[in-house]
Amino acid sequence: MRLDGMTAVITGGTRGLGRAIAESFLREGASVLCAARNPYDIKELADDHPGRLGYQRTDVSDEESVRALVEAAVSRFGRLDILVNNAGVSRDGKIARLSLQDWESTVTTNLTGVFLCTRAAITPMEAQGGGRIINMSSCVSTRTAVGAAAYSASKAAVDMFTRTAALELAPKRITVNALAPGYIDEGMGAQLAANPRAWETYRSRLLAGRLGQPEEVGAAAVFLACADSAYVNGHVLEVNGGLNWAA
Fold it and tell me: For 72-129, what is each residue's pLDDT tens digit?
């Protein structure tokens, strides 16, 4: 129970990797407030952890919505120890045909949302003596991929934001790190593995020879959230099975 007595806010926490992280945090004893535009189906998860899981409808690109999220976490659970900036979108397309709307929606959600949530979490975390912020990056923040200009650029910016925030918030005893998943058996990763021709190409790039599991990303998030990572700050932790992009 490495997170016993702690409270976490997870944006995009009702499905995909956000939900997997929520499940991992709950198993380790944390109380979790899942923030998203849609609750999807987290009732079963809430039933399994009575009193320790909540939902807050949130638009991470809206300053007032983010402010209300942080206030809801503190009001419901009494504190805010961990923030996971997981909410994100992908509007992939080659630059020549990428619309301004798709570019802006990607950058606004993936980067501005991280900024707004981080900024809002500073005051309650500082007041209680510290906290942990975990930003969700991606394997394509450091690797090129055709059609991923908006997504890759937003995630590369998240990496640098993470390092800068770590520098600025360290005096407040707040650590800031990032997770950069590779091909995970969830969402687009699962769709990739379901295409035999595409999977054969990408499988050769993975030293592990398989997709990662959502709970493996959750385990990495627990590490960055708990006392085991007290001396880790400003780091981007890759969880990608040894991804070799040149293969």
Answer: 999 999 999 999 999 999 988 999 999 999 999 999 999 999 999 999 999 999 999 9
Q: What is the dihedral of CA 178, 78, 123, 161, to 10 degrees?
A: 10
Q: Give the pTM.
A: 0.96
Active site residue 151: yes
Phi, then psi, of 135 in degrees rounded to 5:
-100, 140
Distance (Å, whole) CA 213 – CA 166: 28
The helix (run of H) or strand (run of E) holding residue 82 is: strand 82-85
Question: Do you know the residue count of the chain?
Answer: 247
Domain ranges of the chain: 7-239
Please give the Cα distance from 213 to 100 (Å, whole number). 34
Question: Which one of 151, 183, 202, 231 is the catalytic residue?
Answer: 151
Tokens of 102: 């798709």
**Domain 7-239: what homologous superfamily?**
NAD(P)-binding Rossmann-like Domain (3.40.50.720)
